[in-house]
Amino acid sequence: AVIIFFFQAEDGIRDFCLSRGLGDVYKRQVSTQSTWGTIVQVKLNRGKREAAMVKKATSENINTKLSLVMRSGKAVLGYSSVLKTLRNGKAKLILISNNCPTLRKSQIEYYAMLAKVEIYLFPGNNTDLGTACGRFHRCSCLSILDAGDSDILNKE
Questions:
Q1: Kind of pairing, strands 38-43 and 93-96?
Q2: 93-113 pLDDT, tens digit each
Q3: What is the model's pLDDT at position 117?
Q4: How far is CA 110 from CA 37, 86, 145, in A?
Q5: 104 — phi, psi (to 5°)?
Q6: What's residue 42's pLDDT?
Q7: Residues in Cβ contact with 31 at an 8 Å cutoff, skipping those fewer than 6 apart
Q8: Whole-angstrom Cα distance, residue 58 to residue 37?
Q9: In this predicted structure, what is the pLDDT of residue 150?
Q10: Is 91 exposed, middle or buried (0-12, 13-18, 19+ CB in 10 A)?
Q11: pLDDT at residue number 28
């Protein structure tokens, strides 16, 4: 009996290749981030720290507004509840996390387009959105029915 073993090499072991040094190419690119129609442009060659500060400021801003909505207004969490509020015409604003499944996201966007409701793509994942709402569970989408004391419905 003859036993033959095949070993598969990893990418790093097979070939020796020096880095092409494309870091400075990426530093010259411009990143755009949209918040309710306002476009903020951040040049990456200024440093990652400034870009992180801009992102942190916008996420803190939406987090504080969202916590105020949860305390003083009305909001529903979850996919089926969001679709229900969109069909009933009660939704004022929809927030979708950045890791919401594509099929769900497209279906919510379609219903929102029919109901003429604005959508905000939350910069964090579903865990961050749930935490911003003051819940201990994940939430991929959220519908705001009444803003309460918050100015989250006002365009910035």
A1: unpaired
A2: 999 999 999 999 999 999 999
A3: 94
A4: 19, 10, 18
A5: -65, -45
A6: 42
A7: 41, 42, 44, 51
A8: 13
A9: 87
A10: buried
A11: 46
Q: What is the pTM of this model?
A: 0.62
3-state secondary structure of 35: strand
Q: What is the mean pLDDT of residues 136-154?
A: 91
Residues whose CB is less than 8 angstroms from the CB of residue 76 and which lie 6 or more positions away in sequence, other chains included: 82, 84, 85, 142, 143, 145
- Collect all residues with Cβ–Cβ distance below 8 Å to 92 and sequence separation of at least 6: 117, 118, 144, 145, 146, 147, 153
What does the alpha-carbon distance between residue 126 and residue 120 come to, in Å, rounded to a whole number? 14
The 10s digit of each residue's pLDDT in 24-74 is 444 444 444 444 444 334 444 455 555 555 555 666 788 888 989 999 999
How many whole angstroms separate alpha carbon 48 and alpha carbon 26? 12
Measured N-to-C along each axis, helices 79-88 and 102-115 cross at an angle, to the nearest 10 degrees, of 20
Length of the chain: 156
143, 82 in Cβ contact below 8 A? yes
Distance CA 35, CA 19 (A): 36
